[in-house]
Amino acid sequence: xxxxxxxxxxxxxxxxxxxxxxxxxxxxxxxxxxxxxxxxxxxxxxxxxxxxxxxxxxxxxxxxxxxxxxxxxxxxxxxxxxxxxxxxxxxxxxxxxxxxxxxxxxxxxxxxxxxxxxxxxxxxxxxxxxxxxxxxxxxxxxxxxxxxxxxxxxxxxxxxxxxxxxxxxxxxxxxxxxxxxxxxxxxxxxxxxxxxxxxxxxxxxxxxxxxxxxxxxxxxxxxxxxxxxxxxxxxxxxxxxxxxxxxxxxxxxxxxxxxxxxxxxxxxxxxxxxxxxxxxxxxxxxxxxxxxxxxxxxxxxxxxxxxxxxxxxxxxxxxxxxxxxxxxxxxxxxxxxxxxxxxxxxxxxxxxxxxxxxxxxxxxxxxxxxxxxxxxxxxxxxxxxxxxxxxxxxxxxxxx
Length: 400
Prior knowledge:
Strand content: 35-45%
CATH topology of the largest domain: Lipocalin
Number of strands: 33
Strand order of the largest sheet: 1-27-28-29-30
Structural class: mainly beta
Radius of gyration: 19 Å
Largest sheet: 5 strands, mixed
Distance between the termini: 54 Å
CATH architecture of the largest domain: Beta Barrel
Number of helices: 1
């Protein structure tokens, strides 16, 4: 049963952005994969990388959240998921909080990344443990297992959604198509029970003064009312192995939503008018396995293909037409200004210009990490964070 919760605010996600060039949420301050206000030098890695600090976080696929000179990430060691807090400049460990979670088989460790808001850090474990700790000392505020307490069913490759926020709600892709909780108390606000969701995160957005969320279910893409989780509209989006792992990309003040999935399924641009979704175009020019794309200007840059093989592509937003492709391989990317940082799954870093005429490389370098790097790189405060699935982690200076 849906639990209604009246949340009085008309605040855009953009107003939640950090004032500095911190990276507090999954995919950055606006959840769009773009680092805002960065002062950095993309040519700083042309010859070699300058590693400021490094560490071993344990197995997993989490990346970092950066806020107020602290860095947060997750990993798994000895069948415990661990949320870490490090000093941004030195890498000194300030605290850690752990909870029981089996590491897993072929792909061990947590799939999601921790996020931070209002002095609280949230982690979501592969078995459905949603954990809230205080950012200052890592003291537990609240925790709940969504399988045991909310009836959520785990996915074949485990829960992977990084938590996201809308007002005082923290949301994850669990249940049939999303669940929301009071971020301060853990109280359930709405739960879409009755099935399994998917691997991508819940993306909040505003449209004409109203709040919505975009989320993938098992075989449909949904837009929900953010206040109570009720369905506004959905479009069928069934994929092989029921994997929808790349986040939806909300464009044009909420009036357009770009979605993409792997295994050759492809991508589509959906028009949203506050009540219904209409497909404007669909093609196979970008089939993203789990690397979420970015938009710069009127073009989308992303990864086409599955793990173990892929290419970078640039699409025209309006038509979906392919502007160019570069057979560089599989990985994940983020953007800053008109530059894109691509971390190849084998650990090499590529920086190229967001140019619609073709792939124009600025610099490339080895990160010092071995395979497999499926984690999104993060650029924050002149530092580039990269990690592999074993938990090897580097913080690289790209400020000069």
